[in-house]
Amino acid sequence: MLEVVELSKHYKNKKAVKGVNLYLEKGETVGLLGPNGAGKSTTISMISSLIVPTSGDVRIMNESILKKPEKIRNILGVVPQDIALYMDLTAKENLEFFGRIHRISKKELHGKVDEILEIIGLTDRKNDVVKTFSGGMKRRLNIGVALLHEPKLIIMDEPTVGIDPQSRNYILETVKRLNKEKNITVLYTSHYMEEVEYLCDRIYIMDHGEIIAAGTKEEIKNILSAEQSIGIKVDILKGEYLQLLESLPNIKNISVQDPAITLIVPKKVNILKDIFKLAEETNTSVTSVHIETPSLEDVFLHLTGRQLRD
């Protein structure tokens, strides 16, 4: 369906994207992960034909979109990170407006708008002005606009940012349903690792303008197959305790979400004794310790050294 070949974008003082290669098979949902500034948005903009690359190519069904950008525009839907709606129009009016931009006939558009409103769960609010909508409803309408022209491929750039859990779950289920029932191919970026785990068949991890890992969820997790994840919870996180943990040998990675600490260490290393010994020395009360196989989030931290939201 989509192939990105040695795609690069250089600005005067910065190389934003450096030789990215990725592909999407028809009917796949593929995740593109990376911390802020990794180059995801620039890559998406080049795939969408909004930015001309410095070098490389984007091919849709084996045809270069650099030569025929209208080819991808006819089959691509984009859900941008920022809400792209007219706030003083109703939900129905927004869909009708964007439908006309896509040159959908007036006769066909009426039925298409009703169908989209049903998919995104806004039929009962179709005549309400968008500025009265909650954040989650605006996000759902944003998705609806991208579906109007029946795209075969859809790019979703953090479609659940800043919304309530109920709306977020609705959007995730909608994405999954569109992929399975309508066979829409999806390229999905998110700041929520659990969303990518739930939706995606394969994952690309990007940092500093480059793809640094790619594969299925299981293949990505196997990067740390020889390691174990040790989670430590304390009543009050003290800087002295954290510094002593960081100084221990064999620590592959350490991350903190106060009051929890996560260590990545080789499976063959027994570090539990040191954890409690250092806690005693610093008068730190450890409330729980658990050992797990490293998660996708652990692998991401190991590869980038940063939280997904950093």
From TrEMBL:
<protein>
    <submittedName>
        <fullName>ATP-binding cassette domain-containing protein</fullName>
    </submittedName>
</protein>
<dbReference type="GO" id="GO:0005524">
    <property type="term" value="F:ATP binding"/>
</dbReference>
<dbReference type="InterPro" id="IPR003593">
    <property type="entry name" value="AAA+_ATPase"/>
</dbReference>
<dbReference type="InterPro" id="IPR027417">
    <property type="entry name" value="P-loop_NTPase"/>
</dbReference>
<keyword id="KW-0067">ATP-binding</keyword>
<dbReference type="InterPro" id="IPR025302">
    <property type="entry name" value="DrrA1/2-like_C"/>
</dbReference>
<feature type="domain" description="ABC transporter">
    <location>
        <begin position="2"/>
        <end position="233"/>
    </location>
</feature>
<dbReference type="InterPro" id="IPR017871">
    <property type="entry name" value="ABC_transporter-like_CS"/>
</dbReference>
<dbReference type="Pfam" id="PF13732">
    <property type="entry name" value="DrrA1-3_C"/>
</dbReference>
<dbReference type="InterPro" id="IPR003439">
    <property type="entry name" value="ABC_transporter-like_ATP-bd"/>
</dbReference>
<dbReference type="Pfam" id="PF00005">
    <property type="entry name" value="ABC_tran"/>
</dbReference>
<keyword id="KW-0813">Transport</keyword>
<keyword id="KW-0547">Nucleotide-binding</keyword>
